[in-house]
Amino acid sequence: MTRGTAAQMEKLQARVIQCRKCPRLVAWREEVAHRKVRRYRGEDYWGKPLPGFGDPQARLLLVGLAPAAHGGNRTGRMFTGDRSGDWLYGALHAFGFANQPTSVHREDGLVLRDAYVTAAVRCAPPDNKPMPKEMDTCRPYLVCELGLLEHVRAVVALGRIGFDSYLRARQEQGLAVPRPLPRFGHGKAYRLAGGVTLLASYHPSQQNTLTGRLTRGMFHAVFRKARRIVQD
Predict the structure, then answer these.
(1) Which of 35, 88, 104, 165 could form a disulfide with 120 if both were Cys (CB 3.0 to 4.6 A apart)?
(2) Which residues are paired to 115 by β-bridges?
(3) Beta-carbon neighbour count of residue 58 at 10 Å?
(4) Quick one: pLDDT at residue 3?
(5) Does CATH number 1.10.760.10 belong to domain 3-231?
(6) Half-sphere exposure (Cβ direction) of 183: Cα atoms closer than 13 Å
């Protein structure tokens, strides 16, 4: 990534943080940040949209759903401060994409190597369910990231919404997608134009991990495949 492109990424991240385009999401994220929950009552919540996080020259891109109300919306970093983040950064560390297996807060020293984490929606939505219009409003940020992340070879979509959002952002960027569109299914891999492979994974939410729908072995298998792809 050139110095000019790096500056563009910083400007994009600043735009994301300042965004107030979706009234329902703005109201919810700020209400949560004000009300808090008992276990975090002494903390200052971030309460703003979350920019992407990671290596701007990454060959691995991860696309999730949205920040958690008391995770990213509290800590100010994607997949940070909740159980989903424990699973994600544990896997990234296990396969050499992160310098540590935990992500607790923005100043905890976590560094991603060759990986960049983003999401379909940048604000915590009520019940973890963004509305279609909100996803459409937020998608231009993902489109911009795809244009700036010039070295991506593998994309891990964390959940169906992340999967569909990546494909739609790719279309809006003017890149080719298969017809018919790929279908989400854990462990599936799709070779796309431009030398990019799209990998599908169940989201590491507690709804999936505590029920056994997603096991550690299943999750790590996706990242093992991603590591092979970026090294080929």
Answers:
(1) 165
(2) 60
(3) 24
(4) 55
(5) no
(6) 2
